Amino acid sequence: MGVPCSKFLFCCGHSQLKPSLHDLSDLENGGENEKNALPSFTEFSLDVLMIATDGFSADNIVSEHGEKAPNVVYKGLLQNGHCIAVKRFNRSAWPDSRQFLDEAKAVGNLRSERLANLLGCCCEGDQRLLVAEFMPNDTLAKHLFHWESEPMKWAMRLRVAFYLAQALEYCCSKGRAIYHDLNAYRILFDQDGDPRLSCFGLMKNSRDGKSYSTNLAFTPPEYMRTGRVTAESVVYSFGTMLLDLLSGKHIPPSHALDLIRVKNFSTLMDSCLEGHISNDDGTELVRLATRCLQYEARERPNAKSLVNSLITIQKETEVPSHVLLGIRHGTATPPQPLLLTTTGEACLRIDLTALHEILQKTGYKDDEGIANELSFQMWTNQMQETLNSKQQGDAAFRAKDSITAIECYTQFNDGGTMVSPTIYARRCLCYLMSDMAQEALGDAMQAQVISPEWPTAFYLQSVALFSLGMENDAQEALKQATKLEAKRNKN
């Protein structure tokens, strides 16, 4: 998640290093407290995730990728107040739902305080979504490359490296040694400021997707030759992360190794760290990075070796991570999610059957109080024909004969003797049932003109806009409808 986002509260972890942290048993399930806090892997319904993300609103996007990694990550808020990150794959990814579910469950069985853990998934129809813990304090890339007030402290950089090594060792111990495209955007910070490894990288972007979406200058040599990722490839990527932490920049490994060979460490080191780092510490990390970046995969250290090397050079171990990171500890109460009514949820799903039932049940009660323009011909044959058109239209509407209903309601409107927002709403729905979204939008807007405070007019506008692919506008209409309905219910 690469951009600043609202600071929600659903992250658990310990902010101080402990002597026993190199023991994996302390990391599994995050200790007893986190074991109780985190639910087991869940298969979420699409409706629940749509509500949590306000219909996958563009306002909730926290990470977005292009063609090489066709997926988007949204922040969301469940009804129980838990914050989540939802990764939504494009429609062509993971065509086999069983394969997707099996892979997600395998990753979801992992539970560690060093991971942004996978809480569940959704694979309804052609939808493929992953649901993880939401980390509220941005990415390593943000704090390391795009800092605003002060650069990341050396002790925090060492802690990031150590925690990341622990995360990889834990995954290896659980048979998940392969991590795809390890980079500074995959390291997230929880509410305590502790770094965590995103669980999303434990799954490919798709069944046949590329394992690396970043610049090929940073990919392991063997991946360039074979296109396969191995446990040793992950260690190579870890080496590039060490270079990031040393330099404060994203330096291609080949260039960094050239500087190391001629012992030009000063050029490699982040100038912001001058005076805050000993030569021994810098040399040790350079040596470890060099081992990780060996051309021959078999010459690289394993994850356990990384942990053992890094634990000996940790600094300021009693200082909480949020202090080292320079962020406030704890955050404000998260905003309440948009609580949709039954009608709102039907609109979000574009459930025309449910909307038909709602309009049928409501009848014409919302026309009460509307000033109908009646001409002097109201008792003439023309008036009777208009009323007949309405009755015939209603009969067709009940029978879901959308074409006939459209014709009859059009005759009613063309008669000009009465104005009915309900007629426009019903014809709008019939247009939607006939795949005529543009015409439906026109009717919904006309209903709003007649009755500006009528929630149904805005609800139907949202459905028409969703059908036209205008998601942002649809979301605004849905929010307005929800507000109007809440206001009406209070009165």
Task: Describe the protein in words.
With 491 residues, this protein is of the alpha+beta class. The chain has 3 domains: 42-133, Phosphorylase Kinase, domain 1, CATH 3.30.200.20; 138-325, Orthogonal Bundle (Transferase(Phosphotransferase), domain 1), CATH 1.10.510.10; 342-367 and 380-489, Serine Threonine Protein Phosphatase 5, Tetratricopeptide repeat (Alpha Horseshoe). The chain is built from 21 helices and 9 strands. It has helices at 24-27, 31-37, 46-52, 97-108, 140-145, 154-173, 221-226, 231-247, 253-261, 265-268, 279-292, 303-311, 321-325, 342-349, 352-362, 381-398, 402-415, 421-433, 437-450, 455-467, 471-490; strands at 42-43, 61-64, 71-77, 83-89, 115-116, 118-122, 129-133, 187-189, 195-198. The protein has a 6-stranded mixed sheet, sandwiched between helices. It starts with 23 loop residues before the first helix and ends with a helix. The model is unreliable at 1-26, 30-36, 331-335 and 371-379 (pLDDT under 50).
Which band does the percent of strand residues land in? Answer: 5-15%
Structural class: alpha+beta
The H/E string reads HHEHEEEHEEEHHEEHHHHHHHHHHHHHHH
Q: Any idea what the radius of gyration is?
A: 29 Å
CATH class of the largest domain: Mainly Alpha
Number of strands: 9
Outline the biggest β-sheet. 6 strands, mixed
Number of domains: 3
Low-confidence stretches: 1-26, 30-36, 331-335, 371-379
Shape, principal axes of CA atoms: elongated
CATH topology of the largest domain: Transferase(Phosphotransferase), domain 1
Mean pLDDT: 83
Based on the structure given, which CATH architecture of the largest domain is correct? Orthogonal Bundle
CATH evolutionary superfamily of the largest domain: Transferase(Phosphotransferase) domain 1
Report the total helices: 21
